[in-house]
Amino acid sequence: MLKASIIPKNISFRSLFIGLIGLGITLLFVRGSNHENFIYDIFLGFVSLIALTLWVMVIIKDLRDYKTTNKKNSFIPTAVGLIFVISLFLTIHFLNLRDKSPTKLFIVCKIIDFNGVSIDFRENGTYKLTSWALFYAEYYRGTYMIEDSIIILDKSKIENTIKSNRLVIRPEMKIYDNDSTPSKDTIYVKSVYQIDENGNIIKNATAFDVRKEY
Q1: In the chain, which stretches have pLDDT less than 50?
Q2: Residue-level pLDDT at 81
C-alpha cells in the first residue's frame, strides 16, 4: 500500500516528482511500441496503475494545501500531471499512426517454426519488420524504395535477418502434389531474396514468400 508520506510537501518538489513519473511512464510506452511481450505488458499495466495512484495522491495533497493557503498555485503539481496524461495519450496516438498506411507489399520468411519474420511495406514509403518467437515480437521500422523488382531498404543489417539493403522480387513456378488426384498442380508465386551489389542472391540469407501485393 502506498503511503502519503512519499508525496513531497513542497510544491516545487511535488511538481518535479509527478513530472519525473510522467516522463518515465511515457518512455516506457515508447519502448513498448517497438516490441510485444506479454510479461512487459503486465509490467507496464502495473507501473501505470502505481503512477495513477501517485497522481491521485498528489491531487489530494494539492487540495489540502489549497484549503490551507487558498493559493491557486497549489494545483501546479496537479496541472503537471494532467499535462503528462494528455501528452501520453497523444504519444500513443502518434505511435499508432505509424502503422495506419495501407500495405503495398507483405512478405513472410519461407521457413517458419516457432520463429518467423515478416515485412510490411506501406504505401507511404515505410516498412515494419516483425521478428517473432513464441509470445515475443520485436518491431523494426524504416523507409524503402522500389525500383522495378528491386527493393532498397534504408538499413543494410537488421538483427540476424537482413544482411543487405537490397532485395529482389522474383516470380517462380511451384508444383504441388494434389491429394485428391494423381495429377500435380502448377502455380506461380513470387519470392523475395536478399542480393548483393552485383545482383547475386546472398546464400544463407533469409528468403521470403510474397503473401500480399497491391
Answers
A1: none
A2: 92
